[in-house]
Amino acid sequence: MIRIENGPHLDDESRAMLASGRANAAVALFVDTLMDVRGVDERLGERLSGAMLEAEAPAAMRDDALARALAAIDAPAAPESAAKRRPKRSGQKAWPELIRLPPRLQDAIREAERDAGWKSIGFGIQSLAIRKADGVTAEVMRIPPGARTPVHTHRGREYTLCLVGGFSDARGSYGPGDLSFADPNVTHQPIADEDGPCYVLALTEAGLQLTGVMGVVQKLLGL
To answer: Which among 27, 30, 63, 84 could bridge 203 via Cys, Cβ 3.0 to 4.6 Å?
Structure first.
């Protein structure tokens, strides 16, 4: 894994992917969360946001757009929807650490929990896919204290942002706000710190390529 430190030291390839266009909902959420946890400085944030805006297709506005917007601001708040009042589904979690995540990411997590819910991927690790667009997936993972992920490599590029807690692999240790990068040339096994669960937001192009016995199973299943 190539470690990308906090600050403006992203390489050109990393910048190109992160600034590939806000039209990609998975990339946009990842970049927004990156900004929220100050994983990069404000100057880089401005450059990324500017590049995304330039990639947006212009939208035609109605002649009364301003009047409608002002009217919407002045309108009374709508009553709470039935969807928000519905009982919590089995896929929703009440882990106390979730409140430490950036608010906009919390909103995306609640939406994804209503649609699908968290899934166990083994070793006590839970995963929640929150955005998928054009072959790119943004997912939150919860890794229990001291848990080891399976040894794996990658079919494409993967950006991992540490949100809460920490993890390490043979290349180094990562804490909140640290951003790391992996590609098909990297094989590693992240391990969560012992002092509490670790939450990460991962942005992947083509999923993981498991090695060893699990890699054989993956090939047999055609995954």
So the answer is: 30
Residues 6+ apart with CB under 8 A from 170: 188, 189
Per-residue pLDDT of 107-162, as tens digits, reads 999 999 999 899 998 889 999 999 998 888 999 999 999 999 989 999 888 999 99
Type of residue at 146: G
Residue 157 near residue 12 (C-beta atoms within 8 A): no
| pLDDT digits 0-9 by tens, 54-71 | 544 555 666 776 677 667
pLDDT at residue 41 in the model: 52
**Strand 208-210 vs strand 152-154: parallel, antiparallel, or unpaired?**
antiparallel
Q: Which two tokens stand for residue 5?
A: 């430190």
Is 63-220 a CATH 2.60.120.10 domain?
yes
Is the pLDDT score of 43 beyond 50? Answer: yes
Where do runs of H (alpha helix) occur along 23-97? 25-36, 42-55, 65-74, 82-85
- The structural domains of the chain, with segments of one domain joined by +, span 63-220
Question: For residues 219 and 223, what is the distance between their CA atoms, to the nearest angstrom?
Answer: 6
Buried b or exposed e, range 47-59, using 16+ CB within 10 angstroms: bbeebbeeeeeee
Residue 66 to residue 62: CA distance in whole angstroms:
9
Q: What is the mean pLDDT of the chain?
A: 77
CA–CA dist 166, 176 (Å, integer): 7
